[in-house]
Write a sequence for this structure.
């Protein structure tokens, strides 16, 4: 009797301690991950409002003694040569990313719909062929694509980048969107077609609005992919006036000095469009990635 | 409203024949149920009529037009789907208005028709809601409203009640029947539930394996099933089908069981057996036509009760006879216990005889 009474509560206590231990391990892990991702961002922001001298000091100034927005003013000033370059790079990046995104959606939407709805010869083969590209790191295609671009005269044009980004972004976009269309009951289109819509009208009026979250997620993926891409932009473009931001920002490194506050301010502004996109569209984004996880 | 004619309709998927030479006529204003187990081709047939899938061969007439190659939108049909297929992003009002908008009706006329339909279906107060805010029965009603709002030549319904709970299903069943009577609508109604077909339809087309098995009024199908499949599919509990062997004894015909007992046939039934291609005969009897005796009676066959299911007004008894399950219904005051010895008497005038090889009903001609 007494042994049973003694062991039961002890076992219970031990179990509770173990659960708490795991929970704390999880919390510590999350805090660590948060610091890991947030600290560089915070340091970037702090450095961007330092003077060039303060940025190089050791031990570092944890908070700048004389915070200044000089780097931002310089970058956004169209009169200044640094500002002219930065704004041009920014515009180039925006142009390339936006066109990539628009084309990607224009191609991916009908392609994904076709993969989802139609049974045609070679459907499976094509679908896996589309995914095949994702099995290889992008760098492998660098030299062949450069030779190809040179052959068709696209080197030093934004077109070369847009084409390349489409090649790399479309498979995932199509794959993501197909999952979306798979989840929209085919009866909705059938109902629309019986109600007097053509197949195309049924797609535009009924299916498209329902797949907006998927389209938005696809668009964000393409945009961020194109916005951050470095190695192809670095290889295909050499003329200063065509560089995109990731490549252009390199100009802050030079042989003798590196303008760290300027570099950090530029990096920060480069992250702004992506962050804004995420904040505005995150609700769709999360829905898109979890869509189909549970039956509604 | 219009009539619908299917002529030698065939639909194949690869080598698989989903719909096999189906021919039937749905008269103007008639309610026809396509009924059969899942995979029998009934939904495929409906989709062929709707034009949602292309036909392999044969002809479909709606009214006097051949619609084989017409788009669904040009066939002047309306359809109610099993999952209702309401447009989730549109309000009830816009759901009802959609078919009219697609036909480019003026706005005020659309408004008038939508409100009229809403009034008929008693959902005026729901017009601004989204489909997900409605109960299953209300969604069903909206789907029905969207079909009737534009006064089509034919209504196609694909298991419209199967997503509802049992009580609502019975209620909507009578509403749809009423709707048919009021509108004199031509309706083709697909269901796997033979009870729905029997209770609602003017005529029912029983399908199995892509073939049309029988096409007749529910009463006729019930009273004279064309083959063993129809006999076992229509009616609940199912008709009992007992495999026996025909032989001649003392100048008359008897059906003998492997269990040793035999059943002498009446003259009419003996003539039916003459038309069989084999000596293997299947005896069919509905539960209400078998008389249960608690003690040996002349002409009654001994059996053993297996399960007893009281339902209130009647008690269903299951017994094994010649390797087949036999359903018998008795009035509740006859108490039967499982494993009790019982005696079954078949009514010669109400039994069905089937050819054991072809499974077709035998007739005396």
């Amino acid at each position: 009797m007494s042994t049973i009474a003694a062991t039961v509560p002890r076992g219970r206590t031990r179990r509770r301690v173990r659960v708490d231990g795991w929970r704390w391990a999880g919390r510590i892990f999350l805090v660590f991950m948060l610091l890991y991702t947030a600290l560089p961002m915070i340091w970037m922001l702090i450095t961007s409002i330092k003077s060039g001298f303060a940025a190089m000091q050791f031990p570092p100034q944890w908070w700048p003694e004389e915070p200044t927005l000089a780097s931002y003013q310089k970058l956004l000033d169209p009169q200044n040569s640094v500002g002219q370059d930065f704004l041009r790079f920014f515009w180039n990046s925006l142009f390339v990313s936006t066109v990539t995104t628009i084309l990607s959606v224009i191609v991916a939407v009908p392609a994904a719909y076709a993969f989802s709805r139609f049974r045609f010869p070679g459907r499976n083969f094509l679908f896996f062929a589309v995914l095949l590209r994702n099995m290889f790191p992008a760098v492998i295609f660098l030299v062949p694509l450069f030779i190809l671009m040179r052959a068709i005269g696209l080197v030093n044009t934004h077109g070369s980048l847009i084409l390349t980004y489409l090649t790399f972004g479309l498979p995932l976009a199509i794959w993501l969107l197909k999952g979306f269309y798979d989840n929209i009951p085919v009866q909705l289109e059938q109902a629309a077609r019986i109600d007097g819509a053509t197949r195309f009208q049924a797609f535009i009026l009924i299916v498209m609005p329902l797949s907006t979250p998927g389209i938005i997620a696809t668009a964000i993926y393409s945009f961020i992919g194109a916005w951050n891409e470095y190695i192809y932009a670095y290889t295909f473009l050499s003329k200063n006036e065509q560089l995109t931001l990731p490549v252009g920002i390199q100009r802050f490194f030079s042989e003798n000095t590196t303008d760290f506050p300027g570099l950090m301010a530029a990096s920060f502004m480069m992250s702004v469009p992506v962050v804004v996109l995420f904040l505005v569209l995150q609700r769709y984004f999360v829905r898109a990635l979890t869509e189909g996880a549970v039956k509604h | 409203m219009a009539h619908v004619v299917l002529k030698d309709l065939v639909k194949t998927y690869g080598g698989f024949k989903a719909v096999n030479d189906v021919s039937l006529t749905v008269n103007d204003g008639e309610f026809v149920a396509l009924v059969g187990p899942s995979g029998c081709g009934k939904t495929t047939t409906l989709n062929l009529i709707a034009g949602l899938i292309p036909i392999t061969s044969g002809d479909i007439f709606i009214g006097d037009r051949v619609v084989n190659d017409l788009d669904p939108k040009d066939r002047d049909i309306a359809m109610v789907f099993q999952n209702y297929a309401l447009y989730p992003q549109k309000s009830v009002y816009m759901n009802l208005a959609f078919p009219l908008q697609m036909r480019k009706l003026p706005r005020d006329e659309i408004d008038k028709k939508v409100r009229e339909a809403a009034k008929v279906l008693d959902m005026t107060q729901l017009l601004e809601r989204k489909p997900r805010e409605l109960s299953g029965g209300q969604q069903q009603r909206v789907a029905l409203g969207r079909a009737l709002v534009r006064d089509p030549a034919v209504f196609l319904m694909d298991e419209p009640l199967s997503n509802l709970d049992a009580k609502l299903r019975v209620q909507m069943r009578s509403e749809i029947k009423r709707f048919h009577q009021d509108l004199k609508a031509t309706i083709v109604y697909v269901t796997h539930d033979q009870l729905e077909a029997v209770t609602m339809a003017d005529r029912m087309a029983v399908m199995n394996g892509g073939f049309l098995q029988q096409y007749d009024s529910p009463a006729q199908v019930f009273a004279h099933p064309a083959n063993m499949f129809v006999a076992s599919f229509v009616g609940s509990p199912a008709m009992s089908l007992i495999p026996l062997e025909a032989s001649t004894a003392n100048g008359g015909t008897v059906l003998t069981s492997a269990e040793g007992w035999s059943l002498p046939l009446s003259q009419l039934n003996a003539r039916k057996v003459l038309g069989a291609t084999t000596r293997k005969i299947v005896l069919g009897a509905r539960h209400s036509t078998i008389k249960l005796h608690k003690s040996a009676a002349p002409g009654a066959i001994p059996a053993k009760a297996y399960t007893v299911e009281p339902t209130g007004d009647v008690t269903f008894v299951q017994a094994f006879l010649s390797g087949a399950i036999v359903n018998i219904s008795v009035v509740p005051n006859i108490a039967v216990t499982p494993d009790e010895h019982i005696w079954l008497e078949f009514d010669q005038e109400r039994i069905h005889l089937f050819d054991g090889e072809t499974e077709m009903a035998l007739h005396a001609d």
Observations:
- The interface with chain A takes residues 47, 50, 52, 71-73, 75, 77-79, 81-83, 85, 87-89, 98-99, 102-103, 146, 156 of chain B (CB under 8 Å).
- The two ends of chain B are 40 Å apart (CA to CA).
